[in-house]
Structure prediction request, 808 residues.
Amino acid sequence: MRTIKLASVVACLALLFFPGVAFAQSDPGVQGGPARAGLPLASVNANDGSSQFFQNGLARFQDIESVSNSPTGNNGLGPRFNSNQCSSCHSQPAVGGTGPAMNPQFAFAGSSVAPNDTTPSFITVNGPTREARFPFFFDQFGNPNPNARNGGVEDLFTVSGRADASGCSLPQPSFALAQQTNNIIFRIPTPVFGAGLIENLDDSTLLQNQAANANNNFGISGTFNHNGNDGTISRFGWKAQNKSLELFAGEAYNVEMGISNEIFTQDRPLPGEDQLGRGLPASCLNLGGSGYPEDTTNFTAKTGSDQFATNASIPSDTVMFAMFMRLLAPPTPSATTPGSAASIANGRRLFSAIGCATCHNPTVGNTQASNFTTSLSSAPVNAFSDIEIHHMGVGLADNVSQGGAGGDQFRTAPLWGLSQRIFLLHDGRTTNLLSVIQAHQSSGSEATQVEENFDLLSPSQKQDILNFLRSL
Amino acid sequence: MQNAFSRSMVLLGFSLCLLVRAQGAPQSGGDFANNPQAKKLPTGVILVKGAWSSASDSVTPLPEGGRVADDVYNNQYFGLTYALPAGWIEKYSGPPPSDSGYYVLAQIRPADTFKGPGRGSILIAAQDLFFTVTPAGNALELINYTNDNLNADYKVEQPPTPVTIARHSFVRFDYFSPIADLHWHVLVTQIRCHMVQFVFTSRDTKLIESLIQGMNTIDLPADASPILGTGGGDVPICIKDYARDENVIEREEPVFAERTFNPVPVRIVVDKEGKVKHIHFLSAFPAQAKSITDALLRWRFKPYLRGGKPVEVETGIMFGRLPRLMTPQSTDAVNE
Prediction:
């Protein structure tokens, strides 16, 4: 009884002397409990084979790749790579997600994965999984040259010293110099839940949504990135630089894991290795011993009792990664946590009223008819993204151009699944949603005015928005 | 002795060679360079621009060329001068013009040190009528479109209504978000085929009214108005889609080395002889701007006649992609 009284007095005193603290809004943080994502779309089933394809893709997404001599045939890793398994970086809160709390990359250097390498200082045990890019090439004196754009991925690790990669010795890029000269930026993995819905949006839907959000009085006017081959709207990646999931998968397999495939058919040297006019050394080519590409269609797949399972074993890894992503259901939001149902509902309306939803559209529209599975047909895409690229100002600019996107332009990041995302913004610089919102405001940003509107709200209204965002 | 001297000189030369070699360029450049004294790149600067705005000369005023100086926003292109409220500043500049002809001209807010009552913001923006994706032929239609398509969460406080401020004609449109307890009061007028708008946002309507009262000192072209507003004076006449076949005597399409599929909106001024005298790219990659400039300088237009005399014309042309087919309620904007 006395304890309760004492607590009441302390609480009253706290409210009296620290009202700002008592009512200040805060990020509810990553939501616990079961993963709210990771399941296949509702229409995926074993009777039409889609379930077998989903399961097969899911399994391949978790395969650990070797350079050569893998007992399961998963060869071709490297000679440069950021990880040896898709799901090591795409695992939070379930396979297909984004980087986990414990960074798997921290354990690679010095282990059997990358024995001769050292861990770059920006890779930490509890930090975000990352890829690194140098916006500019260095000159021969080690100075970054602003007239020589680079922007390609600088893989963190090499196969040097691995037992299954004899004869190949490669240096790691000069990450310390890049950090010392401000010539490095980072990207974290984008989650791929619901990606099949985004893939199946017709351009006309996106264009209509753009027109509907024009003339918005918030200072916002975005544009689209386009695929260089056919001119249609591209939509995957931090700058919407990739057109389709198959292209996205093929590029990641090649760039992040060093595995050549039917879309990107050669082992990839670093941009600097090409700049020096030599590419990869011969001693680091065809390390798997089977020729190129390292990932191919399986001509010799063995027939099993389940015809659909046999069919699923025939396509290449790249095709099956894309199929897994395509058939992954979007995350399921909570209607009641964090905060309360009323707070979340209020936050959703506030999010729209102050202009956030001009870009982070609750739904950009419905998908077109799908030839894969019915869940992808005429379905709302509640991604909270317009799939446009927007100028985000000097505070977020990374000085990397991809397709039509310049150094300060980014795709509106889909917010579905935000409840269980740990690292935020394109480079994982923060885990705090309030910092993310504030980062939308800087010179050159289309979102400055909306951030101003957020600042005009009361602490409880801001809290409602934060609760809403962490309910997604 | 001579031999010893020669040997010494050879050794010295060899040593110097080694020294020069040791201090020379590192053998591995590119991603593998190493130099403890390397130069740093600046932070907080956009060094890699995508499609961006540019112009064929640095003298002709541009819509996005306005600046805040000495607490006054001045825009030569629009003939606009606006004194900021006391204690308010432009903390962050806006993005570059969009490829649908939208300009964030200035974003005004109280300084961090501001001690006055109420908080809010003033957005000064412009939407041109050359490239807008909204079906409107003048500023009044644009603001009516906004009113007609307002999200159901907002409540209209005052539908678009003509008002006069500092002897200038505007349309005023007020709306309110009950859930956010925020008010938006919008004043628009039309200058040189652009809808110029002031958007006041705050929870405090008294603050907004005082800010609108503060516009009494605003300076605009005398001919600015919501429907047929012009730049007045000796600025070019603006005509949407003047580059139609019937007005172009000689046309040469630009040759692009690489197709990037981005829309390239271009605003041009045609002189009295029908030659292109000024080119403004709202959004273009440098190579696109060069190819289009090379082509446009060879174009010849019919001189536009007013009262029987040729005058300069300002218009917009979309390269790269076809313009959106929008049907304005009025005829195409022609502001004489």
Notes: DSSP finds 16 helices and nine strands in chain A. The first strand of chain A starts at residue 80 and ends at 81. Residues 14-22 of chain A have pLDDT under 50 and may be disordered. Chain A touches chain B through 82 residues (CB under 8 Å).
